[in-house]
Amino acid sequence: MKFIRVKAIAKKELIQISRDPLSLVMAFLMPVILLFLFGYAITLDVNNLTTVVHDRDRSSLSRQLVAAFRESGYFSVIDHIEDQREIDWYLDSGTAQVAISIPEDFSENITANRKADLQVILDGSDSNTATIALGYTSGIINLYSQKIKGVKLVPLVDLRGRVWYNPELESRNYIIPGLIAVIMAVIAALLTSLTVSREWERGTMEQLISTPVKVPELIAGKLIPYFFIGFIDIVLSILMATLVFQVPLRGSLPLLMILSSLFLFGGLSIGILISITAKSQLVSSQIAMVVTFLPAFLLSGFMYAITNMPEALQLLTYIIPARYFVTILKGIFLKGITLELMALEAILLLVFALAVFTLANMKFKKKII
Question: 251: alpha, beta or left, given left = phi > 0 and alpha = psi -120 to 50?
C-alpha cells in the first residue's frame, strides 16, 4: 500500500464532501441534534405524577395526607374532584396518572386508633411508571403513619444502602453514554455508506478502476476523511454529555478517545461494505440505518438489560459492536475504570473493525459488472 495513493484518494473525498452541503450537515449537525433530542426525550425518572384527589373526609388529617403527596416532589395534584365517577374520566383520558380516594371515616378511624382505609388508583398502561409510583405511595403513607402517631419505628435490622457510580440515581447519567454509542453507530455507517455508491451513480467509478490504485488504498483513502469527521463528532458528543447534560466523566479521556476510535473505525467499515454491496446511495443509506440503529438501540444493553432477553437474542448481541462500546462508555463515564477491566471489549471492537474492513476489501472488485 502506497501512502501517496491513499493521500490522493483522501484528498479527492474531502473535495467531494466540501461540495456536498448535505453531507456536511449530516456529518456535524446530526449527531448534536440527535443527542440533544434523545437526551431530553428519553428518561426513566418518574416525577410530577399527575394526581387527582377525591377527599370525602375533608378533615385536617386528610389534608395533611394530600400535602404529604404534594410535598414529596413525585406527585402533582392537578384537581380535587367531588364525584368518585370522575376518576374514570381522568384516568381514561390520560389527564391523570394517579387518583387518591379518601373515605368519609378516614380521620374518625385514625382518631379511634382503628385501621383507616385509603384507595390509590394507578394508570397501569405504563407498567414501569405504575410500579415506581406504587413504591412512592407506600413510602409516603408509611412516613405519614409514623408522623401522626408521633412514634418513630426502630427496625430490627439497620439497613444503610449506598449506590455506587450514580448516587443520585439520575437516569440521564447512564442514558447519555449509551446514546453516544447508538448515535455514533448510525452516523458512522451513514457517512461512508454513500461513498462508493456515489461513485457508481455519478459514473466516476470507471475512472477510479482504470487507475493503478489498489483496493485497500481506495478504501483506506475513502475512510480517512470520514474518520476525522467522526472523531470530531465524538468530541462534540462528549462535550455535550459533560457540559449540557452534566454527566460526570470519571475515567481517562485519552483512553475514551482511543477506544472510541476503534468503534468508529468499525462503524465506518460497515458503511463502506454496505456501499460496495448496494451501489445505490438511497439503498445504501436505508440499509445502513436498519443494520445499525435497531441493533444498537435494542440489543446493545443501552435501554434493555441483555440478561433479561431470550437466550437466542443474548447470543445475537455478541456480534453487535455497540454492545461493547456501551459497556466502555458507561465504565469510563460513570465508574472511571481502566483498560485492564475493559480489555476484552477493546479487543473485540478491534477484531470486529478489522474483520469488516477485510470483508469490504474482499467484496470490492476493480472491474465493471
Answer: beta
For residues 170 and 167, what is the distance between their CA atoms, to the nearest angstrom? 8
Instruction: Give the 3-state secondary structure of residue 96.
Output: coil
Neighbour-count burial for 76-97, b at 16+ CB within 10 Å, e otherwise = ebeeebeeeeebeebbeeeebb
The secondary element (H helix, E strand) that includes residue 353 is: helix 343-363
d(CA 302, CA 178): 5
Residue 115 banded pLDDT, cuts 50, 70, 90: confident
Query: pTM for the whole thing?
Result: 0.82
Where do the domains of the chain lie, and which CATH numbers do they carry?
9-42+170-363 (no CATH), 49-149 (3.40.1710.10)
Residue 363 predicted with pLDDT over 90: no
Q: What is the dihedral of CA 309, 314, 318, 322, to 10 degrees?
A: -10
Q: When comparing pLDDT for 166 and 335, which is higher?
A: 335
150: three-class secondary structure by DSSP: coil
Q: Are strands 98-102 and 119-122 parallel, antiparallel or unpaired?
A: antiparallel
| pLDDT (0 to 100) of residue 158 | 62
The predicted model gives 339-357 an average pLDDT of 94
Question: Is the distance from CB of 106 to CB of 45 less than 8 angstroms?
Answer: no
**Percentage helix, strand, coil, to 5, in the chain?**
65, 5, 25
Q: What residues have CB less than 8 Å from 111, skipping those under 6 apart?
A: 61
Q: Is the pLDDT of residue 149 over 90?
A: no
Does residue 346 have a pLDDT over 90?
A: yes
- Do 160 and 236 contact (CB within 8 A), yes or no? no
What burial letters (b/e) apply to 146-159, b meaning 16+ CB within 10 Å? eeeeeeeeeeeeee
Q: Taking Cα atoms as reference points, which of 119, 117, 91 lies closest to residue 105?
A: 117
CA angle 102, 106, 108 (to 5 degrees): 160
Distance in angstroms (rounded) separating the CA atoms of residues 28 and 230: 8
> Distance between the two ends of the chain, CA-based, in angstroms?
25
Q: How far is CA 299 from CA 168, 189, 344, in A?
A: 26, 17, 18
Q: What is the mean pLDDT of residues 239-248?
A: 93
